[in-house]
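Supplementary Methods. Inverse-folding protocol.

Structures were first reduced to a discrete structure-token string of length 189. This string, shown here, constituted the complete conditioning input.
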């Protein structure tokens, strides 16, 4: 609710449409009626569904994959974006991955940290990007801190990045200033 209210305030203040990513814990994802709750919160705040992306770890999704797939389908049908966080660090089943109604795989920072020098990290990042793209999904890499990491991920076709390379986490007012200062400038990623 807090995240959606903040996004609504930024939109009302003239910032462009953005996607607010919210991590869901296992307890939150396990709540009965989660799709209805999220739908009500979107309606109350006036945020369009495509403005929200819910992030689930592999562990949460794979705890009860049948139930997870059903909830993901219900959320996706409402237009809410879904991503699998920390992809490649758990024990995911590719057969379930194809059944989950997700939009994005998030490359864990453990594969990004040494991507410029570690052939295994390079291979894993490449495999995640290729897998995602072959399934019609996008990718985002977390923990990008250097130009070298960014270049390696771009070379592999990663769609988006997040990390200290662009900015450390910011409180809402400073984030708004950050976005306003870059409005109209080309986005790197």
């Amino acid at each position: 609710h807090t995240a959606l209210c903040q996004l609504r305030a930024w939109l009302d203040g003239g910032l462009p449409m953005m996607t607010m990513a919210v991590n869901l814990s296992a307890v939150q994802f396990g709540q009965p009626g989660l799709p209805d709750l999220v739908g009500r919160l979107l309606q109350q705040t006036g945020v369009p569904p495509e403005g929200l992306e819910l992030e689930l770890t592999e562990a949460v999704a794979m705890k009860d994959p049948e139930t997870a797939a059903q909830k993901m389908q219900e959320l996706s049908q409402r237009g809410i974006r879904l991503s699998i966080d920390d992809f490649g660090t758990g024990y995911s089943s590719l057969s379930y991955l194809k059944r989950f109604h997700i939009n994005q795989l998030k490359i864990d920072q453990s594969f990004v940290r040494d991507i410029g020098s570690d052939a295994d990290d390079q291979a894993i990042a490449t495999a995640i990007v290729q897998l995602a793209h072959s399934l019609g999904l996008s990718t985002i890499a977390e923990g990008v801190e250097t130009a070298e990491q960014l270049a390696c991920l771009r070379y592999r076709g990663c769609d988006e990045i997040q990390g200290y390379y662009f900015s450390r986490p910011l409180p809402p007012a400073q984030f708004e200033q950050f976005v306003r200062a870059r409005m109209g400038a080309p986005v790197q990623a």
